[in-house]
Every structure is written in structure tokens, then in C-alpha cells.
Design goal:
The complex is a heterodimer of chains A (111) and B (114).
Chain A lengths: L3 E3 L4 E4 L4 E7 L6 E7 L6 E6 L4 E3 L2 E6 L4 E6 L8 E8 L7 E3 L3 E6 L1
Parallel strand pairs in A: 2-11
Antiparallel strand pairs in A: 1-3, 3-8, 4-5, 4-9, 6-7, 7-8, 9-10, 9-11
Chain B lengths: L3 E4 L2 E4 L5 E7 L6 E7 L6 E7 L5 E2 L8 E7 L2 E6 L8 E8 L5 E3 L3 E5 L1
Parallel strand pairs in B: 2-11
Antiparallel strand pairs in B: 1-3, 3-8, 4-5, 4-9, 5-6, 7-8, 9-10, 9-11
The chains are: A mainly beta (111), B mainly beta (114).
Chain lengths: 111, 114
């Protein structure tokens, strides 16, 4: 079993749609959780950290369920510029040291 | 601008030759550098962790004699792919922690071995 699993997609949605991505992780000792965005052939960029209480940043909402070892990302009012691959990332040691990446979920937003 | 500068961004080399990829930290001291590899449609896989002035720690399944990592200074880490083969063609990327709770990625290097 992969340490971090994501639905690869692609998710094809129209502008303005709401889309949700899910991720599960296998190591219950994992301490830090993140969503990264990766554009084609580019380096990943931090979208947001994920906290147990859930957190929101504009149109993006992240949730963490430690009991189920499940992380989610909700994107509201999708924009064309949201088209990218979204990576679920887990750090077992806490902080930003040894990051374990999911394979990513591709999102394509169309007009 | 980039906080971690990585180059070359793209390189094509012949099978059997060696390729060096460099990552430089521009505004901070990169005590630790992480090297990842990403094959198409797959996740970034950690290859090794290097600490300045000491030997790199390689992940299971990564050949240390094939992927040579040097981290001789606080601002420079290099990855050399020795005797490259077509199956080594991939996206290689470095990252380092700068300020607390901050990680910086290089821009990545696309290696094609022909």
C-alpha cells in the first residue's frame, strides 16, 4: 500500500464549480499535512497546510481526519487558473523535513 | 525570485555519460538538502537527504554509487547521475528548509538520456 494515496483524476469541471479532492495516508504517526500545487513540468508550490481543526484560505478549504487518516481539499468557484495537479503531502516527523508525496490529482477547469 | 536555484533546467545526455545537477540556496544556509525524483504521472520520490559536510542518507532502493550527492558548502548541493541510462530519464528536484516551517524547492531539472 502506498504511504499517501490520491485519486489521480483527472477531474474535468466547468468554471465556477466546486470540486473536492481526497487523500488517505497509511502512517498513523504522521504529524504534518499539506496540499501542494504542481503545474506541468514545474516545481510543487505550497497551497496550504492542513490542521486538525480544518482551515480555509479564500476559495480553498482543507480538512484533516486523524482517526480515518484522511485529508481533503475543497475548491469553490473554480477558476481556469486552478488547473493543475494537487499533491497531498505528509510529514511523519513533523515540520518540513521528510515529505511523503501523493501521486497527485489532476484538475482541469474549462470555460 | 528563486530562493533555491537549480540548474540545468533541462539536459539531454548520451547513455553512459554522467550529468551533474546543482542546487544553490540564495538567501539562506541550506544545512539540509533533499533530492527527489519524479517519473511521469507519479509522485515525487525522495532519493536522498544530504547534510552539509557529511555523507548523504539514501532511501531504500536508491543506488548511492549511481547517484552521487555532494553537499560541501551551506549554499551548494549537487547530484551527479553517473553512467546515465534511458531509465534514469526523469524530473529531478531539490528542496531545503530555510526559515522555520518553510521549505523551498528548486525549479527542477528535466533529464533525458538518449
Amino acid at each position: 500500500r502506498k504511504e499517501v494515496e490520491q485519486d489521480p483524476g483527472p477531474f474535468n469541471v466547468p468554471e465556477g464549480a466546486t470540486v473536492a479532492f481526497n487523500c488517505t495516508y497509511s502512517n498513523s504517526a504522521s504529524q504534518s499535512f499539506f496540499w501542494y500545487r504542481q503545474d506541468c513540468r514545474k516545481e510543487p508550490k505550497l497551497l496550504m497546510s492542513v490542521y486538525s481543526s480544518g482551515n480555509e484560505d479564500g476559495r480553498f478549504t482543507a480538512q484533516l481526519n486523524r482517526a480515518s487518516q484522511y485529508i481533503s481539499l475543497l475548491i469553490r468557484d473554480s477558476k481556469l487558473s486552478d488547473s493543475a495537479t494537487y499533491l497531498c503531502v505528509v510529514n511523519q516527523a513533523g515540520g518540513y523535513n521528510k515529505l511523503i508525496f501523493g501521486a497527485g490529482t489532476r484538475l482541469a477547469v474549462h470555460p | 525570485g528563486a530562493v533555491v536555484s537549480q540548474h540545468p533546467s533541462r539536459v539531454i545526455c548520451k547513455s553512459g555519460t554522467s550529468v551533474k545537477i546543482e542546487c544553490r540556496s540564495l538567501d539562506f544556509q541550506a544545512t539540509t538538502m533533499f533530492w527527489y525524483r519524479q517519473f511521469p504521472k507519479q509522485s515525487l520520490m525522495l532519493m536522498a537527504t544530504s547534510n552539509e559536510g557529511s555523507k548523504a542518507t539514501y532511501e531504500q532502493g536508491v543506488e548511492k554509487d549511481k547517484f552521487l550527492i555532494n553537499h560541501a558548502s551551506l549554499t551548494l548541493s549537487t547530484l551527479t547521475v553517473t553512467s546515465a541510462h534511458p531509465e534514469d530519464s526523469s524530473f529531478y528536484i531539490c528542496s531545503s528548509t530555510g526559515a522555520p516551517n518553510t521549505i523551498y524547492f528548486g525549479e527542477g531539472s528535466w533529464l533525458t538520456v538518449v
